[in-house]
């Protein structure tokens, strides 16, 4: 040691004593690092701060490049200073990824990890370390050409370049070749490093261009003129970072039809460096895969998907722009990130999606290719590339509201709607079973899980599917028709005992003739000693018809009805097919109908009072409605406290023309009544009534502005005293027509699914003759009390004076709150109110 430092000092012309004193006094600590315990003498030797200054003369004598000497420093620090030290302001690390400011294109360009590793490998090849021996004197060796030094230098540089500025988010800015545009306001600004924008559209920004003819012709021929606005909206979505997330276009159709051409056109909107693609969703389902495939990208495509697709959960989250972790190479720590990436997908056929019920139909927007004889144009790609700048301007000029409406709504084009339905049924045996074999029923009924699964297994056997197990089938079915499922619960207490009601299904039934039963109960009845056997259900494929999914949707969410047309004076209702003569339905002398229109329930005009013996001031219009979900009762319908499995039906009109063979033909066949909402026009002579009173006319105008009873009851103008005052002033004829208006207009819309479900007896023609008794138990507490046997009907005490019957879609009906009372007058008098 003494000889070694003596030799170095002699060669450098430095006094050995001065050398020790200048470095802090103690041997290795002062000599190797320049920082001693008692002082810092490095500046006396290395005036320029270079850690290898001690070896400069030796490097010159050995004819070596002094800048590549790595003797008195670590290789990690030497590489950082060599590669980034003089250019540190132009390098930046964000989320474990390297970016470099490119002065030519004015953007922070992503530098892949393998490029940085290549820099390190080249640097290790030219770096050297000086060593000394008595025989060889000073010589150079190269110990840094190995993976350990390469990986160590990579990690060190990544840590040194991480800056807080990486958290700056400018997702509302879009960089063009000539400017930066604020997509919120349309303001243009010059390029700036401080924006930290990582992608650029390699074209000049020229707003409000029209669609180029070559692009419009391509879209029209390949996808149809009805898809032009849809494709424009998605092109704008790919460009505009402020557009809503949660949707991606799915191009589907024959090979060579234009899917790949449009997909590549979308991918190159930000140039080659701004897009990526993969073959499987699983490629981006892991943190490592996302860092590898998605870093630095704005658009990502799956150009040729097919077969069974797995790993869609992470893909869904990326489409919704939710935060997902990424993890870089040689980094044990993952980072959370919102990737801000748009996706597109193309396939020849519909995909069989893993967990299809998790949201594929909600996120995928199908864009089907037209079926045509394809004549490929080899120069089409070049033609589209030449007009890309104009297409970008045309897409960004689309009104924001119109674009967002397309991106956030269900498809409105018929071909897209049908394609979306086909995609949801493709490979999903449960959903296909619902669409082909089940229908909503106005009868609540009681269908067990095992019965539905038995029909489902028979369907799968006949249609070539592999059936699911019963528990998995029931779980998946709840995601398809959730409102038809009734969970397990405790029933009503009877004779001190509460029964347990199993989970079951209601308001659904198999399609007429879709299934038939053979064997089972008959064999058991013929022989008392033979064990019971399961009936064998067979699916009749010819009787399975599509449409169940749409009917269930309309059943629970009725579509908005068309506006009521103004009736012509003295004529029937006009339509595009000409006049249809009006006729009176048998038994309904005051109700008008048209040929081909289902029968509508009519209500004889009555007084507005709920009880004619009561003072008119007692009549009330309540806004609160008490709802009650029925529990399963007994098998009789003698009172409202019991309910049979088939004793209920909705206040619906059955369309007999849709029945095949009537209801309940064969004892082993099952059927469902067809549902057709009524559409009764106003009374024929309504326009002929002269109503001079302004108040009555205003009340009629309020009624005509509403669609259902609930809407009428919640109007701000709906004041009890005002309405009573109007009724007291009106003549009996005006009251009659007000009653008819209420019973026709508010019930002619397609809102019968919102009405109450009543026992079948109570909607029979003998309504005034039916008498039932309800006893109030706790008069003083004013607690809400319910009739447990009837769905959607409840009673409550109101100021200890009234019993109020309420139902969804109809107004409150009230009578005096005696301890015991009959509902005969309530039923007959209230029908005037619908």
TrEMBL record:
Domain Bacteriophage/plasmid primase P4 C-terminal: 86-224
Taxonomic source organism: Hassallia byssoidea VB512170
InterPro entries named among the record's database cross-references: DNA_primase/NTPase_C (IPR004968), Phage/plasmid_primase_P4_C (IPR014818)
Gly residues: compositionally biased ranges: 22-38
Domain of life: Bacteria
Name used for this protein in its record: Bacteriophage/plasmid primase P4 C-terminal domain-containing protein
Chain positions covered by the region annotation Disordered: 20-47, 550-615, 656-676
Pfam families attached to this UniProt entry: D5_N, Pox_D5
SMART domains referenced in this protein's UniProt entry, alphabetically: D5_N (SM00885)
């Amino acid at each position: 040691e003494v000889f070694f430092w003596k030799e170095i000092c002699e060669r450098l012309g430095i006094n050995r004593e001065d050398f020790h004193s200048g470095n802090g006094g103690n041997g290795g600590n002062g000599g190797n690092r320049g920082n001693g315990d008692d002082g810092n003498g490095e500046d006396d030797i290395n005036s320029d701060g270079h850690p290898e200054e001690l070896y400069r003369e030796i490097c010159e004598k050995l004819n070596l490049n002094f800048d590549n000497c790595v003797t008195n420093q670590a290789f990690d620090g030497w590489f950082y200073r060599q590669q980034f030290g003089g250019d540190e302001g132009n390098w930046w690390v964000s989320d474990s990824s390297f970016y470099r400011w490119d002065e030519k294109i004015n953007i922070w360009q992503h530098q892949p990890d393998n490029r940085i590793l290549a820099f390190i490998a080249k640097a290790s090849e030219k770096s050297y370390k000086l060593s000394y021996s008595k025989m060889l004197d000073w010589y150079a060796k190269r110990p840094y050409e190995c993976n350990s030094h390469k990986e160590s230098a990579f990690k060190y540089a990544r840590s040194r370049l991480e800056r807080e500025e990486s958290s700056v988010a400018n997702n509302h800015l879009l960089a063009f070749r000539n400017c930066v545009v604020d997509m919120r306001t349309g303001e243009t600004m010059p390029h700036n490093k401080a924006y930290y924008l990582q992608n650029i559209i390699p074209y000049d920004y020229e707003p409000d261009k029209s669609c180029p003819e070559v692009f419009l012709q391509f879209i029209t021929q390949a996808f149809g003129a009805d898809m032009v606005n849809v494709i424009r909206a998605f092109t704008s979505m790919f460009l505009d970072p402020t557009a809503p997330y949660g949707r991606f276009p799915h191009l589907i159709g024959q090979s060579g039809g234009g899917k790949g051409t449009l997909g590549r056109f979308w991918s190159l909107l930000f140039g080659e460096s701004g897009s990526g693609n993969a073959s499987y969703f699983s490629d981006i389902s892991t943190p490592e895969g996302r860092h590898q495939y998605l870093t630095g990208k704005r658009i990502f495509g799956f150009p040729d998907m097919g077969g069974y697709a797995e790993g869609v959960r992470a893909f869904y989250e990326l489409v919704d722009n939710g935060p997902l972790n990424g993890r870089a190479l040689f980094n044990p720590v993952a980072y959370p990130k919102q990737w801000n990436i748009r996706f597109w997908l193309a396939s020849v056929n519909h995909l069989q999606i893993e967990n299809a019920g998790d949201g594929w139909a909600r996120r995928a927007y199908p864009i089907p290719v037209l079926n045509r004889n394809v004549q490929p144009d080899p120069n089409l790609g070049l033609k589209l590339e030449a007009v890309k700048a104009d297409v970008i301007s045309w897409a960004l000029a689309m009104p924001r509201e119109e674009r967002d409406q397309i991106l956030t709504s269900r498809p409105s084009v018929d071909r897209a709607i049908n394609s979306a339905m086909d995609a949801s049924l493709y490979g999903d045996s449960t959903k296909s079973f619902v669409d082909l074999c089940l229908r909503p029923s106005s009868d609540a009924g009681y269908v067990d899980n095992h019965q539905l699964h038995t029909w489902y297994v028979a369907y799968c056997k006949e249609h070539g599917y592999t059936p699911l197990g019963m528990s998995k089938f029931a779980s998946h079915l709840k995601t398809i028709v959730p409102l038809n499922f009734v969970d397990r619960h405790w029933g009503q207490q009877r004779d001190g005992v509460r029964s347990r009601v199993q989970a079951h299904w209601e308001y659904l039934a198999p399609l007429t003739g879709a299934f038939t039963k053979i064997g089972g109960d008959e064999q058991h009845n013929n022989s008392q000693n033979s064990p019971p056997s399961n009936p064998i259900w067979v699916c009749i494929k010819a009787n399975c018809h599509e449409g169940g999914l749409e009917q269930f949707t309309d059943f629970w969410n009725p579509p908005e009805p068309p506006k009521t047309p103004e009736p012509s004076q003295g004529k029937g209702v006009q339509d595009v097919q000409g006049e249809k003569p009006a006729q009176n339905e048998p038994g309904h002398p005051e109700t008008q109908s048209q040929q081909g229109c289902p029968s509508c329930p009519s209500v004889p005009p009555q007084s507005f009072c709920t009880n004619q013996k009561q003072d008119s001031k007692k009549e009330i219009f309540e806004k609160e409605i008490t709802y009650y979900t029925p529990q399963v009762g007994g098998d009789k319908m003698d009172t409202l406290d019991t309910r049979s499995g088939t004793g209920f039906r909705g206040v619906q009109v059955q369309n007999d023309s849709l029945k095949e063979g009537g209801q309940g033909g064969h004892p082993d066949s099952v059927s469902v009544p067809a549902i057709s909402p009524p559409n009764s026009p106003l009374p024929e002579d309504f326009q002929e009534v002269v109503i001079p009173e302004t108040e009555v006319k205003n009340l009629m105008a309020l009624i005509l502005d509403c669609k259902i009873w609930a809407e009428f009851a919640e109007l701000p103008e709906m004041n009890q005293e005002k309405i009573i005052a109007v009724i007291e002033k009106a003549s009996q004829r005006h009251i009659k027509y007000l009653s008819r208006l209420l019973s026709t207009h508010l019930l002619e819309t397609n809102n019968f699914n919102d009405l109450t479900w009543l026992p079948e007896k109570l909607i029979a023609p003998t309504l005034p003759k039916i008498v039932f008794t309800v006893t109030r138990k706790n008069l003083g507490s004013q607690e809400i009390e319910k009739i447990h046997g009837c769905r959607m009907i409840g009673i409550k005490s109101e100021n200890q004076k009234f019993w109020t019957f309420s139902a969804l879609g109809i107004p409150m009906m009230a009578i005096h709150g005696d301890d015991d009372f009959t509902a005969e007058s309530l039923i007959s008098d209230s029908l005037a109110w619908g």
